[in-house]
Design brief:
Elements (H helix, E strand, L loop, with lengths): L15 H9 L45 E4 L5 E3 L6 H9 L3 E4 L5 E3 L4 E3 L5 H7 L5 H5 L8 E2 L5 E2 L5 E2 L6 H10 L3 H8 L16 H14 L8 E2 L2 H10 L12 H15 L10 H6 L1 E10 L6 H8 L7 E7 L2 E4 L17 E3 H5 L8 E4 L4 E10 L6 E4 L1 E3 L4 E3 L3 E3 L4 E7 L4 E7 L1
Parallel strand pairs: 8-9, 12-16, 13-19
Antiparallel strand pairs: 1-2, 1-3, 3-4, 4-5, 6-7, 10-11, 10-15, 14-15, 17-18, 20-21
Length: about 425
């Protein structure tokens, strides 16, 4: 007898007119028109548990796995479909006496099973965590602000500098997403959804989801009112798995530079970007240009006379190609093969400027293919506003992957880069 369930709503508080009205109403079958617009105080708001609320995961019903008309229970944090009689959310509210729900699409709050909409300003913080929004004035102060925010558990965090959960083996993705979230023009563009909400894709092409997910992740990383001091990139990574056709997974390790290259190009295409520099925020931020000078090397086994004759033929003349780039690959010098007198490996050091001599238009580097060898030199003609440098540490051979441990020294704050455009050598300074 002690386990009698609490009635769905405290009926003693209703007056006679409300009671008669509530008994006569029938819940319509349409999902979003079933709530009674009764602006009254809900007696169950104190049962909401913000510590259990996590909107980082896929918005689908935990019972039926459908994405249509999904509600979050604000007491236990689980997702359920529907609101009418016999729906999963309705059943959950009766069985568990959890009464406050949030529609994850319309951002409206409801009390179940009584099925009336809750309008209360004390719930605005939950709405903001689900869908953070940023005004232009707020975005302009992000880089200058040092104000710390406080999570529900009392921990302090700085917006933008929060952890990304490692679901299994997605750290190679996380490091790229974290880096991109601090490129100011890219961040500012994705913090305001109206910047890309009108991008239209061809019928049947849903790659725009990748843009939406990246925008959502960016807004969560920079949210000053988060309930927790970390963010899960679960929805973002699911979009990556889908649109990379499972090339990049979060269950197994991948190469960060492969992911970065694919991700920037995928975002550029989804934003209807073209070859023009100003066709997307990706190209505006990262696109540079270089000239590549290539000449073929005669086979070493030939005698000198034949080599000289070959060098005179058109096939062995140097030719130039113009190539755009989103990042520069820097090659480390090979590590020493021998150990020192104390039988310890010497870890070599190299300066960043030394690595960048590869792009001065004079230094030649040999490239081997299966049949032929080439000498190439690279001359940067246009530098981007944000320069991505990739230092190649891993080399693969037939048996294993070898890591080059060389330490790269670089200036503490900034370094100078020069583009060798024919009309003028243009120097610019980069903040590191």
């Amino acid at each position: 007898m002690d386990s009698v369930k609490q009635p769905p709503l405290k009926r003693a508080k209703l007056n006679a007119s409300e009671l008669s009205a509530s008994t006569k109403e029938v819940v319509p079958t349409k999902p979003e028109q079933g709530a009674r617009r009764v602006n009254r105080l809900c007696p169950y708001l104190d049962t909401i548990n913000r510590q259990y609320l996590d909107f980082d995961f896929e918005k689908l019903c935990s019972v039926s796995l459908t994405r249509i008309n999904v509600y979050a229970c604000l007491v236990c944090g689980k997702y359920f479909q529907g609101r009418g009689t016999n729906t999963h959310a309705y059943t959950h509210s009766v069985a568990e006496t959890h009464h406050v729900f949030l529609n994850l699409h319309t951002l409206k709050f409801y009390c179940l099973p009584d099925n009336y909409e809750i309008i209360d300003s004390s719930l605005d913080d939950i709405k903001y965590v689900l869908n953070p929004t940023f005004a232009e004035a707020h975005i302009e102060t992000l880089d200058a602000s040092t104000k710390l925010s406080r999570a529900i558990d009392g921990s302090l965090y700085m917006p933008g500098i929060v952890g990304l959960n490692n679901i299994k083996a997605n750290d190679y993705c996380n490091v790229v997403l974290q880096s991109l979230s601090h490129v100011a023009p890219l961040r500012n563009y994705f913090l305001r959804e109206e910047n890309y909400s009108k991008v239209s894709r061809p019928p049947g092409d849903s790659s725009y989801t990748l843009v939406q997910r990246f925008g959502e992740l960016m807004r969560k990383l920079w949210n000053p009112r988060n309930f927790k001091a970390h963010v899960s990139p679960h929805e973002m990574l699911q979009a990556v798995v889908l649109w990379s056709r499972k090339k990049f997974q979060f269950t197994q390790q991948g190469d960060p530079i492969d992911f970065l290259s694919w991700f920037l190009n995928a975002l550029h295409r989804a934003l209807n970007g073209s070859k023009r520099k100003d066709s997307s925020i990706i190209h505006k931020s990262f696109l540079g240009s270089m000239n590549i000078y290539t000449r073929k090397i005669p086979p070493t086994e030939l005698d000198d006379h034949i080599k000289i004759n070959l060098m005179m033929t058109p096939e062995y003349q140097e030719f130039v190609t113009e190539s755009p780039f989103l990042y520069l690959t820097c090659d480390l010098p090979p590590p020493p093969l021998f150990i020192d007198e104390f039988r310890e490996n010497i870890i070599p050091q190299v300066n960043l400027y030394q690595l960048l001599t590869k792009f001065n238009g004079q230094t030649e580097k040999e490239y081997k293919t299966y049949k032929e060898n080439f000498l190439k030199r690279f001359e940067i003609t246009q530098l981007p506003p944000y320069l991505i440098l990739y230092i190649k540490r891993f080399t693969k051979n037939t048996f294993f992957v070898e890591k080059n441990p060389t330490i790269v020294n670089f200036p503490e704050h900034r370094f100078r880069g020069t583009s060798h455009a024919r009309d003028q050598g243009k120097a610019c300074e980069y903040d590191l």
